[in-house]
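Hi support team,

I submitted a single chain yesterday and got back a structure, but I'm not sure I'm reading the token output correctly. Could someone confirm the output below corresponds to the sequence I sent? I've pasted both exactly as they appear in my results page.

Thanks,
R.
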Amino acid sequence: MLSAKTTAPQPKEKTMKLYYVYDGLCGWCYGFSGIMTEFAEKHQEELDFEVIAGGMVTGERIGEIGIAAGYIGEAYKQVEDHTGVKFGEAFLEGTLKEGTALFTSVPSAIALAVFKVQQPDKQIQFAARLLKSTYYDGNAPIDYVAYGKLAAEFGLDADDFVAKMETEEYEQLAEEQFKLANDWGVTGFPTLVLEYQNNLIIMSGGYMPAPQLEQQFIAAKEELGVPK
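Hi R., thanks for writing in. Yes, this is the structure output for that exact sequence:
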């Protein structure tokens, strides 16, 4: 008996790209991580995704976390109340209370730059893990060994990952991310930028629940003239 010849369905061509502009020290990004991850999984057939590190704490803003402990000690409660995410005791009673860890966005941006080259399809998940590393696990933002361990969770070689983080190449890639976010006029995190046919619009800014994010996506597509 002859069987009908079948061919595997071809994947739909992606005409849109969503840039997730976040920062590795942004508490609201930490609260938004689950929603962003679910959104990416839901729309992976129609969207390409790229995470851009925004550089929230760079240059003269870099300093010991203790300087901002009073603000963070209040702000994290708002994030928990609005998003349902939990900050870990290791951060609250360890890193924050001890107060001497250097608060800087640069190392996590470098880690993201390394990861994007090696596993671009999982960069949103890695960005979420970077945030959890700081705000739940209590790892210091400058702990390169910790970043290597996170990379190992995704199947990468920890030592090689750290070695790449220490090169000028990836430091430069991180700086380019900061510049791109600045050129787009991003002033807060998280911010989502949608691209279609070389046109860009800011789709949303700040934390928002999943239903509102879906509405913003529909509105952004209409504004860009994306066919239904």
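A quick pointer for reading it: Residues 16-224 form a domain with the Glutaredoxin fold (CATH 3.40.30.10). Let us know if anything else looks off.

Best,
Support desk
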